[in-house]
């Protein structure tokens, strides 16, 4: 479905309006298909929609606005109630006259059933003298209630499930492509088992959620969560897809097909044909040195307040070599920030020569060569949205302008107060010979990261020389992505939006921020919401996704489990400075905290830093954390990166235990994570009845198994253990002659095949013969 489909209804509105003046207006008009029946009352604007498959009716009569409302540029709001209505076949036209000051000025609303019979499209057109600022149609029609066990699902980051059982009052707006707004152009509502999906094509649409508790409701209801869409400027239409019986998984799968029609569902199968090295992202740990050079300026960018080198370029290369040589990591997205001339967030877009404090151009080129020789993706962190007054290239011509003609300010970062570069100008700057072309020549980097491109909300620019609508901003950001991707082969940016899927290869920030599942930790609490993998249900096999920012590994167990449930590798953005692993006193201090029984019943948030009796024993705490988590998440992502997420469910009512399924048939991969405070028993084909402690997990497929458990096979452990088993010959574990067993911590005994083996670090086993060596 493309944008033109939403324009066609508007072309016929004027013709339909003639019928309103020659035909008697009925009290109610109806559209009916084999899937739904839509009825609009002319006397009050109330409507109801009956989903025939689910046998559930959605109604708008509970609100006070009738069919909806509009706000004029004068900032006055009018309800859409009485109307003249006419229906013909599968279409209906209603004329609302909302303003008493302009009694003849009307808003024409058209409702029509699309060809599939299960989709209702709403569009509108107003008389010019009304000067509509915003409008909402079917306002609060799609409402979830506590008695209907209902909820709304919002595509903010991975996704939020907002139940009508929280007992909370709130109103919240999720704007399209805002920082924590709608990352996909959809929302879903489930009520009494019926699922409805609302979709749109224009970036000037916002989704509003409103929750009311019992004091404002009828005695039969205790809470309701109402969903509405607000359209502005170029936004003229949206669609409602009636899915029958369903849930948030059904909604995600239905939207996946709509994304395919829009051209947004570009899978890895397509992307790898263009550039095979993008496969290096599968299973790659996101290791970021943040940042090589730190420099802090005052707000006016006139005085240097501090400067600090965290890594020289030689040290950065040694960090990568340590990961390969000592931790045996083969899959790494190795990113360096702060490599530019004055360090990150300083003097953009003037990035070369490379930071002299870190070694300059020659050392920078040598660092790149050494990292690339390891087989890693060598990624450079850059920025084309911010510009500073002390930048050699500073020119007000490059800066976005507000509606009042003033320069658009950005944040106060390390380099001082930043101004926002117009995205059209940003592409011009990136193309300069001294920018991306020079960086490629100097480093031969095979990956690039341009910060904020997908994170910041879509912008408007009012400079007459380069004006931007939100749609224009999107277009130029896509063009910048394509340009960088064409030079370096692999491209990514911050956070991520669905409109970036066809133009990029990885996102940083959707799976978590600062070790949390959601950036604004208070928002899910305010809404009574739970994070759900809505984005994954649509796009899991299209893009690599990571979290962003640093966090403490000793408090990261839940964060790791979240990534297991998503099938995603971790972001490691808190790498200690310089040659951190050569600081034995820090390693010994952390090591002394571990020991048998280190995971008590309530759960140990530091468990992935433990290595008692395991592979990483004696290593520095960051290395233990990297090794333990990478051994689980890397093979999981390698297996599932090109798979669709096919199932997700919460196994307990408090939503602390999750089960995720990737793919179908013999190649299916299952992950179960226990974020509760008690043990949980689940079934495993390989391990029988498996007891998962708090922060326990089970990953199971034909060729890879991983678990943190209190039991496996017929073994019962005194304290939890963590193992992975991986087939190296791509045969099922039960018939493989090369099974690599990795032991992270705990008792070294593991049941494998028909015998019990002891594996202290790692060993390659043959179930039909002897081991190949304990390493």
Q: Which terms would index this structure?
A:
34% strand; disordered N terminus; 775 residues; alpha+beta
Largest sheet: 10 strands, antiparallel
Structure summary, number of beta strands:
46
Q: Give Rg in angstroms.
A: 28 Å
- Low-confidence parts, pLDDT < 50 over ≥5 residues? 1-24, 585-601
Euclidean distance between termini CA atoms:
55 Å
Task: Describe the model.
This protein is of the alpha+beta class. Helices cover 20% and strands 34% of the residues. The protein has 14 helices and 46 strands. β2 (36-41) and β3 form a beta hairpin. α5 runs parallel beside α6 (360-373) and α7 (423-430) packs parallel to α9 (470-488). It is globular. The chain starts with a helix and ends in a 10-residue tail after the last strand.
Please sum up the structure shown.
By secondary structure, this protein is α+β, with helices and mostly antiparallel strands. Helix content is 20%, strand content 34%. It has 14 helices and 46 strands.
Produce the secondary structure layout.
Elements: H1 4-11, H2 13-22, E1 28-32, E2 36-41, E3 47-51, E4 56-59, E5 68-72, E6 77-80, E7 83-88, E8 91-96, E9 107-113, E10 119-126, E11 132-137, E12 142-145, E13 151-154, E14 160-163, E15 170-175, E16 186-191, E17 194-199, E18 205-213, E19 223-232, E20 237-245, H3 248-262, H4 268-274, E21 285-289, E22 293-297, E23 304-309, H5 313-325, E24 332-336, H6 360-373, E25 377-383, E26 386-387, E27 409-413, E28 416-420, H7 423-430, H8 436-443, E29 447-451, H9 470-488, E30 491-495, E31 506-513, H10 522-527, E32 530-531, H11 534-539, E33 544-548, H12 557-566, E34 571-572, H13 584-591, H14 621-640, E35 645-650, E36 657-662, E37 669-674, E38 680-684, E39 688-692, E40 696-700, E41 704-712, E42 715-727, E43 739-745, E44 749-752, E45 755-758, E46 762-765
Parallel strand pairs: 21-24, 21-34, 24-25, 25-29, 29-30, 30-31, 31-33
Antiparallel strand pairs: 1-2, 2-3, 3-4, 5-6, 5-11, 7-8, 8-9, 9-10, 10-20, 11-19, 12-19, 13-14, 13-16, 14-32, 15-18, 16-17, 17-20, 18-19, 22-23, 26-28, 27-28, 35-36, 36-37, 37-40, 38-39, 40-41, 41-42, 42-43, 43-46, 44-45
Helix pairs in contact: 5-6, 7-9
